[in-house]
Amino acid sequence: MAEGRYVYCIVESSQETQLGNIGINGIRVYTIPYQDISAIVHNCPPEPYESEDNDVVKNWVITHEKVIETAWERLGIVLPLGFDTIIRTGEEKDPKKVVRDWIKEDYQNLKKKLDRVRGKAEYGVQISWDTKIISHALIEKDEELNKLSEDIKSKPKGVAYMYRQKLEKLIREKLLREAENHFKEFYGRIKKCTEDIRMEKIKKEEEPRQMLMNLSCLADKNDAKALGDELDKINNKESIFVRFTGPWPPYSFV
Amino acid sequence: MFASPDPGLPTHLCNRAKRQMEPERDWKGRATLVDLLDRIFDKGVVLYADVIISVAGIPLIGVNLRAVLAGMETMLEYGVMQDMDVKTRMWESQKSKTKEVPLIKGEELVLKMYGSYHYKSGIYNAWKSGHIYLTNTRLLLYQKEFNEKVFETPIDRIKAITVIRQTSFTGKDKNIIHLYLQGKKVVRLSVHDTEKFKQELESSIEKAGMTLDEVNQYEEEKETCPQCGILAPVKELLEKECSKCGWVSITQKKNKS
């Protein structure tokens, strides 16, 4: 019969280790080593985990993360895998051998990646601003906008509408420019206190909040103080909000 | 702890926090769970080995869960709201079913069909869509949504019917029904099933004891009179004279002399 091995992560270890019944659905988790690299796995049928029930999936996902963290804590560096990565065996093959063969084949690559994230962790940085407040500030600060918005007050309804359209267009343009400037500035400042940065997709936020940048940063696992300090300064700017999450296993840098 | 401002607080209050910013991670809270999902479903070591179980369909559960957590906007984006949307539309169509066009006493509905009417008023012209009702006495187009009769005529005023094939703006060929009403007014309709509509309309007119005229007498080509500017049939202008101002074409003058 074909079998499956659900792979949580790769660690730097040559030991056969039991991590206990901490896996998805309370299943036993253990290592399959090849030389000095091990895969953290559990035994399962060769089918992906699927469920219509969001709470069930949520539990699986959190369990997946917790297993990786346990391994991270106990065995040092980890290369996390995504949810539901299952290695399947053929009819006759020993599942252990299939996993070993895979590590063997990818050995150099995995080694390189392990070195890269040694002692590091991933941190999420999301920076947003409040377009409403920024727009108001722009109108007050910018002479052209200020004059235009003053003019609107004295115009008849129809003309005022046209003026308002013009004003909004100008504000949009200036916001865009301002956003670009912020991006360049913040990116540069964050880069100085991180090892590496991945740019992630901007997420939609509730109006009038708007995300300026969404970054995954690679930095020291135990000391993110430099990054924290820098983000603090950014967060203290008027109408700029920083979300800082982590330390995550280095999902984005493997 | 988490130094990022609470979104509920006024900004001038939250930005004053002078604490050292520390990374936050607590997936009992909704926000960080989304961060985890972003990583766990899209990232991590990717295996390109043929021993890997095909992950077709896997991202779906991720998408679902992410959508639930991310709120309405994203839900719509991912199509999770479709069920709800279908329900809403069903409710709406149920509701509008009860809103039928009021019939006059003794009037019988012969045919109801989706269609549109070419509405023209001054420079404004457009196809107005709705349900076309054919009764034993009337033909009308009714827009339920606005409870409005866009067009209405007693069927005994319909003098001739013809179908013209025309290329619509979408590039598809479309059948346009021309109804010639008493007083030379032309009504243009487009219906879901042209053949059926035409048949039913013709038989209704027949049943009402009327006969339809041949179309050609209504289909005359028209031209403006060079003298008074009135729209008159080309034949009349060229072969006789303008019925309004008496203008005669040069050829006609020559013929006369």
Description:
The complex is a heterodimer of chains A (254) and B (257). With 254 residues, chain A is of the alpha+beta class. Chain A folds into two domains: 4-116; 120-253, no CATH class. Chain A contains seven helices and ten strands. In chain A, the strands form two sheets. In chain A, strands 1, 2, 3, 4, 5 and 6 form a six-stranded antiparallel beta sheet that branches. Chain A has a four-stranded antiparallel beta sheet with strand order 8-9-7-10. In chain A, helix 4 packs across helix 5 and helix 5 packs antiparallel against helix 6. Chain B has 257 residues and is α+β, with helices and mostly antiparallel strands. Chain B folds into three domains: 11-94, no CATH class; 109-219, PH-domain like (Roll), CATH 2.30.29; 221-257, no CATH class. Helix content of chain B is 31%, strand content 27%. Chain B contains eight helices and nine strands. Chain B has helices at residues 11-14, 30-42, 58-70, 72-78, 82-97, 194-207, 234-239, 250-256, and strands spanning 109-121, 124-135, 138-143, 148-154, 158-167, 173-181, 185-191, 222-224, 231-233. In chain B, the strands form two sheets. A seven-stranded antiparallel beta sheet of chain B has the order 4-3-2-1-7-6-5. In chain B, a hairpin with a 3-residue loop joins strand 6 and strand 7 (185-191). Chain B starts with 10 loop residues before the first helix and ends with a helix. Chains A and B meet through strand 1, helix 1, strand 6, helix 2 and strand 7 of A and helix 2 and helix 3 of B.
